[in-house]
Amino acid sequence: MSNKARPPIVVVMGHIDHGKSTLLDFIRNTNVVAGEVGGITQATSAYEASGITFLDTPGHEAFAGMRERGADIADLAILVVSAEDGVKTQTLEALDDILKAKLPYLVAINKIDRPNANPELIKQQLSEKGVLLEGYGGAIPAAEISAKTGAGVPELLELLKLLADLEELKADASLPATGLVLEAHLDQRVGISATLIIKDGTLNLGDFLVVNGAVSKIKRLNNFQGEQVKSLLPASPAQVIGLAEVPPVGATFQTFTDKKLAEKTAELEKLAKKEKTKTEIEKADITTQTEKANILLEIPVVLKADVLGSLEALRSEVLKLNSAQVKLKILSESAGKISENDVKLAGAIAGSLVLGFSTSAEKNATDLAEKLHVEIATFDIIYKLSEWLAEKIKTSLPKQEIITSLGRAKLLKIFGGEKDKQIVGGVVTEGKIASGKMVKVWRRDNEVARGKLTGLQESKIPTKEVEADHQFGALVEIRLPLAIGDVLEVIEISEQ
After folding, report:
1. For the chain, is the Cβ count within 10 Å smaller at the N or the C terminus?
2. Which residues contact 380 (CB under 8 A, 6 or more apart)?
């Protein structure tokens, strides 16, 4: 064993638009932000710069899974907080992910170049949330920076390297590589690819990669810049192209030089996965008949995204809209372009939707969707998709009958009548009763019929309403023969 110091893996986290990507942009001296739709990072990315491997995570709430995964993979974290906007919802969510992963971290107070910047206020806000910075009663390092101008960034990097030195991060480059899957997707041109983060060992061209019970020989290996290489060292991001299966994001991987050993390991993983799936099915909640009865709207959906991380965010946003009355049923979900098969699947069930995030539909899929009357909706910004789907649900929900009780009356006399019409007398016990309104008939606490109050008198004088504690005479249009002691509940019915 030859453990040597390795570069730190650092996850950059914070609220949306607080400058995470801009900070990395400055460090790498590139322009990633300009190429991102809507100005936000919608997928986890990995870069090497200044002797550090950085993981950039999205700030939007839909990408909570990506943030958690970034925290699990990383050695250290940078929590970015805008000096202008302060501590926000996703700031606290990112902090929670950092603390759960037990990551050493520092705070980057960004946008100090802005006219409304107030770093001291930010430090106070953080202390109120239990983040005690150096100089504020704690030991958490902090740097005031401008990711736009670069002010304070060199000091931030120095703090980061000091923090890494304290962790004494080591790896053995002589070992076969192990690590985690950061991202994965299917590319129609080159096949299945995955972005890996090497935690230990060296990843070599020709190695056998085992992940999620599948074996793949590494036939093409790229570094984070997309350049083909023969090997990559610990802490490096790696792109492996031509995998046998799309691996789940967050899965661990191992590599082997011996194919038979790789296959044996994969078989053991398959058995473990099969047993886990069986247990999960057994523990799964079964929707009760009562729950099913409450569902007013069910929308089958086919989900597509560019990569698995984006697909995870899409699934989260879709399922978030489920309620006691609305069920979004996922028919299938996969990474890649929307295909004919996706449309065929949706077309088999009336009312199905095909939802795409950061992807597009193939021409033959679009043509087929038109023929089958299948709606395809694609979006490049996750919250736009959420807003559209919420509105779709709202307009698709069936009108609900709302019953408002106006009053109740007890029958004291039955005077007779003709077919479907009865003359009765009674006293109003609650609220008021009104002519022309619908009535429920209650007998021994059970609703037995419904009818209509078409005539109403008080003291033998026709009236529109009779108040509580007053006696009345009335004509009731109803098929059920009424009886003394029955209760008439006068109701109003509307639609929502």
Report:
1. N
2. 37, 38, 42, 357, 358
119-172 pLDDT, tens digit each: 999 999 999 999 999 888 889 999 999 999 999 999 999 999 999 999 999 999
Distance CA 48, CA 98 (A): 21
In CATH, the architecture of 401-495 is: Beta Barrel (2.40)
**Which residues touch 64 (CB under 8 Å, ≥6 apart)?**
93, 316
Strand (E) or helix (H) holding 82: strand 76-82
- Amino acid identity, position 212: N
Query: Residues for the chain: how many in total?
Result: 496
The DSSP 8-state label assigned to residue 177 in this structure reads P
The answer to whether the beta carbons of residues 299 and 366 sit under 8 Å apart is no
Domain at 293-396, CATH homologous superfamily: Translation initiation factor IF- 2, domain 3 (3.40.50.10050)
E strand residue ranges, 435-479: 438-443, 446-458, 461-462, 465-467, 471-477
Decide if 255 contacts 201 (C-beta within 8 A).
Answer: yes
Q: Is the dihedral of CA 383, 389, 390, 392 positive or negative?
A: positive
Q: Are 268 and 317 in contact (CB under 8 A)?
A: no
Mean pLDDT in residue range 341-358 = 92
> Helices in 284-381 by DSSP H: which ranges?
289-294, 308-319, 340-347, 363-372
Give how far the C-alpha of residue 330 lies from the chain's centroid of Cα atoms, to the nearest Å. Answer: 14
Region 204-221: mean pLDDT is 95
Domain boundaries, the chain: 4-170, 178-272, 293-396, 401-495
| Contact in structure between 361 and 338 (CB atoms under 8 Å) | yes
| Contact (Cβ atoms closer than 8 angstroms) between residue 191 and residue 241 | yes
Residue 124, SS3?
Answer: helix
pTM of the model: 0.67
